[in-house]
Amino acid sequence: MAQVAVMSPDGSVKKIDRDSQEGLEALRKLSALMLKAALKQEFKGIRLGEAVADEDGFHVDSDKDNQQVSADELPALEDVIKGMAKNDVKVEFVEVPVEEALAEVKDDRFSTELINENAKDGKVAMYQLGDVKAVADDDILLYGNVVKNLRLLSVAGAYWKGMSSNPMLQRIYGTVFYKKDALEEDLKKRQEAKERDHRVIGNQLDLFFVDPKVGAGLPYWLPKGATIRRTIERYIIDREVADGYQHVYTPVLMNLDAYKTSGHWEHYRDDMFPPMDMGDGEMLELRPMNCPSHIQVYKHHIRSYRDLPLRIAELGMMHRYEKSGALSGLQRVREMTLNDGHTFVTLDQIRSEFAKILKLIMSVYEDFDITDYSFRLSLRDPKNVKKYYANDEMWEKSQSMLKSAMDDLNLDYYEAEGEAAFYGPKLDIQTKTALGNDETMSTIQLDFMLPERFGLSYVGQDGKEHQPVMIHRGVVGTMERFMAYLTEIYKGAFPTWLAPEQVHIIPVNEEAHGEYADDLAKKMKAANIRVNVDHRNEKMGYKIREAQTQKVPYTLVVGDDEKNNNGVSVRKYGEKEQNEMSQEAFMNEILEDIASYSREK
Questions:
Q1: Residues 311 and 418 grouped into a single domain
Q2: For residue 393, what is the domain's CATH number?
Q3: Fewer CB in a 10 Å sphere around the end CB: N or C, the chain?
Q4: The pLDDT value given to residue 426
Q5: Does 571 lie in the same domain as 422?
Q6: To 10 degrees, the CA torsion angle through 562, 563, 564, 566?
Q7: Domain of 514: which CATH number?
Q8: Stretch 413-432: mean pLDDT, rounded?
Q9: 135 lies in which domain range?
Q10: Does tRNA-binding show up as a keyword for this record (predicted)?
């Protein structure tokens, strides 16, 4: 395997495998430094922020007094970088007195801040490429002659250090590989990702929007997106009620003391919003989790062994603090609604309830046509005493029970140490996204800790009090993330049962056929079919193309023949052929399509 020379932030040089992830990121770190040098060369007085290299590529943040760098200027910057590569530029390690380093960037507040943060003993370690210096903060490739297969991808706004209270900078994204075919494959994947990006599709289909001016990470669900969400929610509630769950509504605010008791305040504080002081000693907290709320529902009555398993579920709204730079469409938000559920069981009910929950999850996956998934048993890292609840006996017992339950079901799984919740182990169902990445969709978590901390009990057959075990479970995660996942999997072409508009009716002539179209729509609405009639004064070809652009499952054209024969001309999304059908035949077809969750017959 080919090796390359890499410099570390302490100035030492080592050889690493070129094709390793470490070798790729060192190449990308060098490319980011070369981009900084190109920006300095092309734009005098430009201020330079952070340069980051990771598994997705690299980016550099910058700021100028006049108009920011535009996407049109990226090819010219690429040429400058490739020119440096031809000249075989080399990275040098220098230790610069802090005063000297600050003097060189005196008009650049961002470079100044980076230097001050990394200064040590009056000096700062830096990488130098020609006349440009940057703080040495990661391994970097030494020689620039390998930076050939590079592409600057896009520009976007990004807050300095990801904080919305900081200035907005210009972020330039790029990618680079050692081999040309690897770059071409990456660009192909990025194009596919762009076409499937739920943010782009959400805008095209008018599903949702997020406006940072009125609240970063707080999505607005537009009528079409709300229709899809409402369909999912009704489906989930019906499935859970049929499975023995009792649905509840609980407040999004709770006394902070509850989260101190649960341990969320201790283990999860950085992801919680600041408490609200009510002025009379009461501190209220926007909930980051629903479990303490469902515990209160359990505690509201004295419970008997006859009540167990007690299954409580809710589409519970939660709030979690995410840095502005981490927010992304519906994928990463600050307000979310979790398809949440908690079951309170006796010890001897754990295995059967676990199997019941897993059966529900897999059945739901079938209805959404989710087939590519695997099981991850997420366990505690016993060395991480800060992250996990300190009770070795509890952890051994609960982890053993989960393993036994999976073995009983004869399901393959893999173990992941350090991925457990702070209060107990869990089974994570890992699904593949549209681009092949792993994502946790569903979880089943075993919890002995919270019942103990909240003093939960039930009266057993012996008349004595016993402590229940709590099982946390989420079937499809949050509505926001699930919607993002489905949008990208379906590429915006939602199956008929989920589509916000299932049928689009186009009268050939408004005066002659508009009333027939309306009567047809009325019958469909009575059958709970989501239908619209296009009465606009536009050409029919335009209306048909727009229905296809909006990815409506069925477009019906009605003219003289259809009106006279009590029929419809049907065109399915993605097909060019039109089929003549009677009203009755079409109604039977679409209702069967909806009832079968649009699965292939």
A1: yes
A2: 3.30.930.10
A3: C
A4: 84
A5: no
A6: 70
A7: 3.40.50.800
A8: 83
A9: 1-180
A10: yes
Which residue reads 């800790």 in tokens?
Answer: 449
Question: 34-78: per-residue pLDDT in tens?
Answer: 999 999 999 988 999 999 998 889 999 999 888 788 889 999 999
- Give the C-alpha separation, 110 to 452, whole Å: 49
Pair of tokens at residue 206 = 């008018």
Measured from the Cβ of residue 462, the count of other Cβ atoms closer than 10 Å reads 8
Three-state DSSP class for 238?
helix
Evaluate if residue 393 carries a pLDDT over 90.
Answer: no
Nearest to 250, CA basis, from 380, 337, 160: 337
Same domain (yes/no): 150, 207: no
- Classify strands 554-558 and 567-572 as parallel, antiparallel or unpaired: antiparallel
Pick the range with the lowest mean pLDDT from 285-294, 440-449, 498-507. Answer: 440-449
Residues 321 and 295 occupy one common structural domain: yes
Alpha-carbon torsion, ordered 10, 14, 16, 21, to 10 deg = 10
**Number of compact structural domains in the chain:** 3
| Domain end (from 443, 465, 488) | 488
Strand extents, DSSP E, 418-485: 426-432, 438-447, 458-459, 465-466, 469-478
Shared-domain flag, residues 515 and 471: no
**What is the radius of gyration, based on Cα positions, of the chain?**
29
pTM: predicted TM-score of the whole model, two decimal places:
0.82
The answer to whether the CB of 471 falls within 8 A of the CB of 446 is yes
Bridge partners of 57, per DSSP, are: 54
- Assign 357 a pLDDT band (cuts: 50, 70, 90): very high
**Amino acid at residue number 228:** I
* Residue 189 within any structural domain of the chain: no
**Mean pLDDT over all residues of the chain?**
91
Q: Which residue has the tokens 């020609």?
A: 130
Q: Which residues pair with 508 in a beta bridge?
A: none
- 484 shares a domain with 512: no
Quick one: pLDDT at residue 385? 59
Residue 380 or residue 321, greater confidence: 321
Which residue is it, tokens 């869990």? 426
Q: What are the counts of helices (DSSP H) followed by strands (DSSP E) for the chain?
A: 19, 30
In a domain, 194, yes or no: no
CATH number of the domain to which 154 belongs: 3.30.980.10
Residue 300 shares a structural domain with residue 442 = yes
Residue 155: predicted pLDDT: 92
| pLDDT band, residue 267 (cuts 50/70/90) | confident
Residue 105, token pair as written in the block: 């960037």
Q: Is residue 305 part of a domain?
A: yes
pLDDT for the residue numbered 346:
94
pLDDT at 526: 97
Say what the alpha-carbon torsion angle 180, 181, 184, 185 is, to the nearest 10 degrees. Answer: -140
State yes or no: pLDDT of 396 exceeds 90.
Answer: no
Residue 515: φ, ψ to 5°: -65, -40
Residues 227, 168 within the same domain: no
Query: What one-character DSSP code corresponds to residue 194?
Result: H
| Final residue before a domain boundary, out of 488, 503, 536 | 488
In a domain, 395, yes or no: yes
Both tokens of residue 581? 């059908």
Q: What is the pLDDT, as a whole number, of residue 70?
A: 87
* pLDDT interval class at 389 (50, 70, 90): low
Q: Which residues are annotated as a binding site?
A: 291, 342, 472
pLDDT at 601 over 60: no
